Amino acid sequence: MTRSLFKGNFWSADILSTVGYDSIIQHLNNGRKNCKEFEEFLKERAAVEERYGKDLLSLSRKKPCGQSETNTLKRALEVFKQQVDSVAQCHIQLAQSLREEARKMEEFREKQKLQRKKTELIMDAIHKQKSLQFKKTMDAKKNYEQKCRDKDEAEQAVSRSANLVNPKQQEKLFVKLATSKTAVEDSDKAYMLHISTLDKVREEWQSEHIKACEAFEAQECERINFFRNALWLHVNQLSQQCVTSDEMYEQVRKSLEMCSIQKDIEYFVNQRKTGQIPPAPIMYENFYSPQKNAVPPGKATAPNLARRGPLPIPKTSPDDPDYSLVDDYSLLYQ
């Protein structure tokens, strides 16, 4: 620990001034405020990490991501979803760690507050005592000075009345002078007593001021060290989160390295192939050609219901009276 600097640099020539003490107290208050701000920062960061973790977890578990992929790419996507889920859990755990650090900062801040309170109560009391004794001393000084002026006036009055014939007036002046001398002696003693008391109070105040400076400096050193370590730990936690996330994403990269484009293509072909023979070319068909009803190669045969079959050949010649009969059916009106 460095040598004490507070006790040698926060004095004032004015005995009533507390500017040095007030400056230290203001600095300690600012330090406590800074710890409170960092504590609130940790809480807010924890909320951000938790919100991000939960959103990432929801995204990983609810949002489809290449769900129809197959074979090696499918396995890589499964690893990706698993690792994203793990990263999300790490962010939620980080949020809990940050809240724990914020709690430690709050406890430290409150501990220092209680420690300071004891010293501040002592200093407040000694400041009041010093101010009160200083006022009493100044009042005693004023009274002493006034008594001295009264004595001086009495002496001058006696000197001026040396030629007076009236002995009674001279006697009164001498009595007044004697009284004023007694008053000067009494006020002088009272003044000196207050000066002595004030000096004791001053020495006591200086002693307490030095103790307070040493206590406050030690406390400030402790606060700076604690704050520094807390900040160091915080960035270490963030760095570790990055390292952990990268390790998880490395698993995804490794699974992607195992992904084979050729295997995925072959897998798809083997699972979904429909045949290896393409359709035959479509042939031209002449309507009047005897082969118009021939079935093209590669095409399944089926009854052609869209066309009528060939007409029946008459059994009689055109000159025969029965020519008008087709299979015993008369085409003539009877």
Describe this structure in words.
- The structure is a single chain.
- The chain has 334 residues and is an all-alpha fold.
- Helices cover 71% and strands 1% of the residues.
- The N and C termini lie far apart (141 Å).
- The chain has four helices and two strands.
- Helix 1 runs antiparallel to helix 2 and helix 2 packs antiparallel against helix 3 (167-257).
- The chain has a single domain (17-271), classed as Arfaptin homology (AH) domain/BAR domain (Substrate Binding Domain Of Dnak, Chain:A, Domain 2).
At CATH level 2, the architecture is Up-down Bundle
CATH homologous superfamily annotation? Arfaptin homology (AH) domain/BAR domain
Give the terminus-to-terminus CA distance.
Answer: 141 Å
Shape: rod-shaped
Number of strands: 2
* Arithmetic mean of pLDDT: 87
Task: Pick out its properties.
single chain; 334 residues; mainly alpha; Substrate Binding Domain Of Dnak, Chain:A, Domain 2; two-stranded antiparallel sheet; 4 helices; 2 strands; 71% helix; disordered C terminus; cytoplasm; PSTPIP2_F-BAR
